Structures are given as structure tokens and as C-alpha cells.
Fold each of these.
Amino acid sequence: MNAAADTYAVVNLIARYAELVDAGDFAGVGALFADAVFIGSGAPAEGREAVEKMLRDTVILYADGTPRTHHATTNIAVEVDEEAGTATARSYVTVFQALPELPLQPIAAGRYSDCFERRDGQWRFVERRVRIHLVGDVSGHLRADH
């Protein structure tokens, strides 16, 4: 492959994560991290089942099966090492939410630091570090006991 195609593939993985979380497809997110670790505010979650469980245990889903969120990922910077078959990415994330009792608003903002590897011709997550720097009203998004 070439650097532009590889960068595009990595950006698509970053976007796919946001789409799956916002759709409430935690099994799909788990599949993205089948051979990876997710490091956030709690204990690291490694592998498909652990990442899916972490999301099910912490994120509130509504009657429509979604968390009623919109993850906007911006300022994406990707660096590809063609020879090694690895890549890193840095990006910003802003999470918006709207509920009947909560008008549309940003509820959290932070950064993703990601590592990827190309395996069998496909790019995959190896690690995602999430650092949330700004927190608003997350009472309708995260379970109080987490």
C-alpha cells in the first residue's frame, strides 16, 4: 500500500469507532479492539469481550438502543511507518448528547492517542488512550456507579 491509502484506512477506523459507539453497537466496538487495549479513566480493557463489557457497564443506552450521543473526532494527525506496518494517530474528541430533559450540548471533550498495525493487509487498533479534559453533564451518558 502507500502512505495516503494507509492514512485513509486509519482515519476510517477512527471514524468507525465513533459510529459504532453512537449506534450503541458495543459488540462492534469490541470487534475493533479484538487484539487491542482500550485505556481510559478506569482499568485498561484488553480484547473484544473486555472492551464490550466496559462499555456495557459504563454507558447508558436508551429505548432506541443508542446512548443518544454524537462523537465528533477532529484534528486527526496520522503518522504511518510503512516499513514497520504500524501507525499512530492523535485526535480530539467532543461528545455531544441530547435527551428529552437535556438539550443538545457537548458533555465531554478530550483527546485520543491511538496505535495501529497492519495485519494480513488490514489496519487494526493496537491501543487507544482516551484522555478527557473537559467534562460537562454526563449524568445521562455514564452510569453513576462508574
Amino acid sequence: MNNLQTTYKNSLALLTDLYEITMAYGFWKNKMHRQQAVFNLFFRNNPFEGGFAVNCGLDYVMDFLKNFIFTDSDLSYLAELKGNDQKPLFDQGFLDYLRNMPFECDVDAIPEGTIVFPHEPLIRVKGPLLQCQLIESALLNFINFQTLIATKAARITIAAKGDPVMEFGLRRAQGVDGSLAATRAAFIGGCAGTSNVLAGKKFGIPVLGTHAHSWVQAFDSETEAFEAFANTLPNNTIFLVDTYNTPKGIDNAIAVNKKSRSQRS
């Protein structure tokens, strides 16, 4: 089994649905693979029943396309696939074609962070039909997920009316890259920072944080926990107030904050 480093460093040409490859094979078999085509990526309805969406994911798309190749490992895997008759699914000639195929599509796109609307092309891909088909699933994956996150972040940021919003989704995200992509998309959507340290390093996003409920539970009282945290990080004190009782937690946080300020003044 591949480790994470191998998985994310290699070409992602196989990040696709099988039917994209079988369709590409069909185009090649029918000598249609060089036929010029135009694919438009768009969505039909605004997410969250809102009035807009925030376009996101383009940087991932461009990195994917710049590194779009079928490696020897990819082609060996495809050569092992069998049809219902237990014969190879693909002719060797098709796999050889994929091995030597330069990427030739032209791509036009709306910049990330732009407000977009239903039925508006976010990405336009023009090129050989076979290549347009092969990249369809990956582009949908990058744009759909990250646009959803960026849009949600924008809606929450607007509702906050100027107060900074922090992204804190690592522990609930869909896998390793899901967490990185979502953090980046939330930042594009308006979030001021993230709890995700790896994303902070990778994308230059400010890293922010509170403490966990476990910090409060490690002390005899909430007030003692708040005081210890304030003394430990006087320049980065953000309290989590809902461990036991939120209204009382707010009162305790205010009291500790006032005490800390008076001691530092």
C-alpha cells in the first residue's frame, strides 16, 4: 500500500472515474480522440439556497493539469484491469498512446475568489476530445468541493459583520487533502485564519487557536484553567467558554481577562 507521501507526490492522472477512461478508449478506438471539443464546468443551483457562490479550486486544477501524465505505474495498473470476459479491458496500443500523450488543452477560467452564479462557465477546456474527457472528474472534484467551502465561509463572514472568522475544520474534513483544500477555500472565502498548521505552512494562512475542552477539564475549575492559559500565552489568549455552562463560561472569561490586563498594566 502506498504511503501518503507517495500518493500525493505522484501524478494524479488516475484521479478519475473509470468511465472517463473507457470513454477515452472508445474515442481512440473510433479514431475520434483528436476531434476538437469544448467542455464547460458550471453548477445549476446556488449552494445553501443562497444568492451566489465563491469560485475556488482553480489553483489545484492548474497544478493537476501541469503535472498531467500517465506514469508507468498508472499504465501497469490499467493493463491489469479485466472486462467481464476476463480479458484485458484496454488494448496495449491505447496504453502506449496514453504514455506518450502531451497535454494539449487550452483552459480559460474565472479567478478564484470571484462571485459566480448558476449556469456560468467557471472553467472552459478546449482541446482533443479524449483529453477533455479524461480530466473532467478531477476538475469537478476540485472546483465543486472548494467552491462549496469558500461559499459557506463567505456567508459566515458576512453574517459576522466585520468580526474575524477563523476556520477550524481539520478534524471534521474528508481526509488529509480534504482538510488542506477546505482550509485554503475557507481563507479565500473570507476567513481570517485557520487552526490547521500544515495548511498555514503550505499556503501562508495565519494560524489561530483557542484551547480544547480537555484543557479546562484538566484543572479543578474553569477559572483556574483560564488563568493558567492566560499566563501561558498572554499574547494569544482566546478562551473556549462552553465546556460546562456557556453563560458562566463567558463571565469567567471576562473576569480572568480583566484580571490579566490589570496585572500586565
Amino acid sequence: MSKLLILLSVTAMTVLAVSAAKAGPTLDNIKSNKAITIGYREASIPFSYLGADQKPIGFSMDLCAHVVDRLKADLGIADLQVNLTPVNSSNRIPLIQNGTIDIECGGTSSSKKRLEQVSFSVSTFASQPSWLTLASSGLKTPEDLKGKTVAVTQGSNAVGIAQGISQKDGLGLNIAQGKDHAESFLLLTSGRAAAFMEDDILLAGLKAQSEKSDDLAFLKSNYSITYYGLMFSKDDPEFKKTVDDVLSKLMASGEFTKIYDKWFTTAIPPKNINLNFAMSEALKERVAHPSDVVDY
């Protein structure tokens, strides 16, 4: 009998250990607290930004709402609390790493360097870095920026990209870093910077929301594609599996495309402006074949 009890005890402990391992730290934390903390951006149009009521809305927020619904079902917590925490380009990764937020639902691009610190879902967007400038400046191409001051946002991939372009092409750029996209945009529109580098869609969003949209223009450029995803803790395969499964099923059902069209090809709040940003061929490929692979 004692041997049987020992065997049963060992078996039970093994089952509990396997169950705990399967759940993973993020899911364990969410289940224990009966709450999930979502990081959102305040001005990353149309991914995650503040609406007219100062509450976060956007493409990534809608995708994360589906993740929350899945967690409610999987964890059996119908009243799962959703806590919202604003993040910016500088603190979003540290807040993931220290557990302050469970998932970032913003407009963040993946890269091999970032994957050393955090994990990303399968790609939810494909973008290209670009330069936004004043139409009156007479600038046409990146080469025209030689020796000028340009703006980037602190903590953005654009910082390294702009530095690399400056060095590779011998432009000698003076790179000014805004604390967020709004400040970088102000550096441009106030004339303190000749151009603002960021992913094309984020610049398109800022341009569309500007009261002087016609005063802004893009420089002709053709840089490498970057892929966005929802961001969460590194080395947590079970949470990643859950998030990826939610997104992959949305893509397979056609719901992902509907959500995309809602934010990129129709009028969006608060000013009811249409970004007219059709889904790129690169993103269509990722929707057909979900992947989190990045090239650099």
C-alpha cells in the first residue's frame, strides 16, 4: 500500500509539474491574478492610440481583444480583468522584461536584435522605413539630406537605420531624437529638423491627422521591409503559441483582413480620416502563411 501511495504521489507531482510547465510564466501570472496587463501606445496611428474619449483604440488593440477572449475561454476566467498601461518607444521592452505588462499591443517591429530581449507573434504588419519632410523644403531624395538635422524617435529601430544610412551613404546627418512620435513630428513641423524617419505607415498616420497634411511630403526611397507583431516575454513558448494561434485563425478565417480594412482603408476616429493604406503584398504573404521570421 505504501508503495502504491508513493507511486500515486509521484505521479500527481509529475502531472502538476508538467501542467505548470505547459502553462508557462505569463499564463500562470494571468491566471493567478485573474488579470492581464496590456501595454498600448498613445500616438501610434492606426495601431494603438487615444480616441476622442482618451481611451486606447486601434488595429493592434482589436487583435489583442481577440487574444483576451481566447484567454478567458482557455483559463476559465469569464471576468478576466484587463489593465491598460501606456508605453513608449523607450520603455516598452523594459516593461515587458520586468513583467509590468504581459503583452504590448502597439506598433512595434521585430528584429534579430530585439528577439534577443523579447518575443514577437507572427507578423501582423509589413512596413518600410521612410522620410517625411516639409513639401516646401524642396528635398526629393535622402541624398538631399546631406549635412542636415533629421528627427527619429528614441527607442525606435529608426535610430539605428538612420545612423546606418548616414554612415553608409556619407550623409553626415545630425540625428535628433524625440521622446515619442509626437515630439519627433514637432521637430519636423517646427523646422528644427529637415526630415523625420520612421516606418511609412506611422508617418502616414501622423500626416493624415495633421491639420496641414498637404504641407508634408515623403522622400523617394526604397529601404528593407520590417515586420510588426504583438510583443511579449521571451522564452515563454506556451503564451506565444496561444497568441500565434489566435492570430493565425483570424488570418485563415478572413477576420484579420476585415480588421485591417477597418483601420487602414476606411475612415478612422477621431477625425474620420482614411489612411488609404492597402494591404501590401508582403503582408498578404504573411496572412496566407503566418510567420515570425525576420531578416535582420
Amino acid sequence: MPLFWSRIRRLLRYLFAILLLCIPLALAWAAYLAIDDTPLLAPAPSLAFTPSRMASAQRLLARIDPRKTPPGALRTLQLGEDDLNLAVAYIASHRPHTRAQMVLQDGSATLRASTFLPPNPFGDYLNIQAVLTETPGTPKVEQLTLGRLTVPPKIANQLLRFGLWRLQASPAAAAADSIQHVGVRNGVLSVQFVWNDAIPAQLQAALVPPEVQARLQAYQGRLVEVAAQPGPRGLSLGALAQPLFELSAQRSDDKNSLADEHRAALVALAFYVNGKGIGAILPAARDWPRPAPRTTTLAGRTDTAQHFSISAALAATAGSPLADMVGVYKELDDAQGGSGFSFNDLAADRAGTRLGELATGGAAAQLSLQKRLAQGLSDADLLPKVSDLPEDLQMAEFQKRFGGVDGPGYKKMATEIERRIGALGLYR
């Protein structure tokens, strides 16, 4: 009998060793099946967010804005397939080389997505196809495919439930709980929810992690110090930006990367220069000390400083293609009856974008920026001469002289703007 149990124990050890060997092999095989060499969706063109699409996004946001809904009221939000894909494309644009698409059918929605992966031995792209079907409560996953790997619905729905459970522990829990039903009929996604005035604050808190909030608070504190210094009411953008970047160098360490610090500095700068407090996006910031209002100019103009700082923050947080199109869209919006299209302002948008890219790019670029800042930062370092560029162009004149944003005249001016910006030492 002892010999029998000894053999059983030896067999169990062999089985356990085989199991330990099979687990990594199974994971490697799953990764091999899940990762592809080519994307499911073709790469998006560089100008996917055209001015007309940005205008559509603006109209969509205005239409679905629920803030006029009385608290406790049941409301239905309806999104057509085009609206939904615009939102999905915007979200996907935050990750480089990512595309996503939604297809609506009665009672179900299909998500298709492709994203480029870091270097690995299995392939370049993670391709996802998921079919979600309508239920009396939250939708369920009917089908989930990762590359060539089919995930059983039972496991897929367990992952969905786990995600919802994790959401309950987040600041956005109440916002998720407000959703009563999600359905699809006649190509329209309908979401029924109970409006709560606390939802915007909860969502904003969920989107801005505590460590990012702490960084923003640090740069708001530095702005309080700079704005309190005696002197003329006006400040140049260079004089305002330099102490923020100096703080970035001081705060960067093993826990706080220089790129993250630069990003927070540029966001705080943009909201101050444009006369908005960070509380506009972060409710907790409404209780922080506020810097005294000071007029900020770039090349002697407040609007130029505003364009530059907004684009720098957008490039640092969302990527340069989107920042480019936001700048163009704003100018086209002005041309509809405001101040008109301005190549002067567009140059400020592009220069701001370059600074945002430089501040959050590779380590060499960030260190080069810090070295350049140590020599002082003036407005002439940030923006080349642009006072001779055409501006105040109403739409009809803009189309006639430059052929719109796709015309040869516009492209020639854009190339000249890039040449002038590239000639500045800060951006070389």
C-alpha cells in the first residue's frame, strides 16, 4: 500500500508539472491566435476629423446635452449610426493607429476595432469583433472574436460583468447606475437614463485620475504665485510659461515623468490664458486657490496667446492630428460671421501644437526643451513673425482666394507657416 500511494504522489507531481508547462503554452497559443499581422480596419486618413465632421460633432454634443433635464427625470438619448461612429472615431483617435466602427441592427450592435501593438513576437495588430445584443437590462455579449481567437460567450459575459463590477467602485458608478435600458431599433441606439446633476462631476472625476489632479493643482499653485507678482497687468506668454516648465523639471522623478509634468503644465496654462479655471473640467479644482486674472499676450495679442495655448494643450493630451483639425475648425467657425478666417491664428495653432508635441515627445526632445528653457523663453522663441499673414477673411473671400482648406492657395500658405515655425531654434 505505501508503494501505491508513493506512485500516486509521483503521478500527481508529473501531472502538476505538465499543467504548469501547459499554461504558458496555452497563453502563447492564445496570443498567437489573437494577434494579426494586418488590421481588420484600414488605417484612418490623416485628416479624418475634417472641419465638417468637427462641426457635426459640435452639433451632436449640443443636441444630446442633458443638463437642461430636471433631476430625477427619465430621458432617452438617441444616436444614429453616423453619430455613434463619429463618437467612436473620436475616442479611437486618442490612441495612435487605432480605428473603430459600429454597425447597428435591430436588437444588436456590432463593434469592430483595430489597434497597433508594441513590438512583440506574435504580430502587429489586435483586431476585435464583438456583437452585443439587447436584454431587459444591460446588453450581453453574443459573440467576441480577438483576431482568430473566438472567446466563448460565457467567458465574454463574465468579462463584461467584471468590467461593470469594477465600474461600480469608480467615481462614475452613479452615472452607470443611472442607465435603465439600452436598445437598438431602425438604425438608432437608444439609451434610457435617469438624469442626476452630480453625473458630470462624477464622470469628470473618473476621467481625471488622482495623480493627474495633484499635478494640475501644483501648476495652478505656481500660476497663483506668478500672477501675484507685482508688475504690469499684462504678461507675455513666454514669461508665464517658463516658470511652469521650470516646475516640471523640479517635479520630474521616478514617479512623475517629465512628459506627464509638461502635459499638466500646458493644460493649466491653457485654461488660465483663456480665462477659464480648471474647475471647468475638474469640479475638485473649484476649491483650489485661484490665480489673479492677468492679460496674457503672444506677439502683443491676446487671441494669439489663446490659440497657441489651446493647441499646445490639445497636442499634449490628444495628439497632433486632432489638434490640427480643431485649430482649422475654429478658424472656419469664425469665418461664418465672426472675425473671419485668420492665417495668423492658424500659425499660432500650429506653433502651439509643435510645442505640445515637443514637450511630451521622446526623452531627447523633452531634455532639449528643458535645456533651451534654461536660457530663457520669449515670445519670439514660441512664434515666428506672422503679422503679415492674411486674416479677417469671411468665408466667400476665403474660398475665392485660397480655394478652401483643400485648395492650392491654402496649402501654399500652410507650407509657408510650417517653414517659419521650423526655422525657430525651439522647434528644430
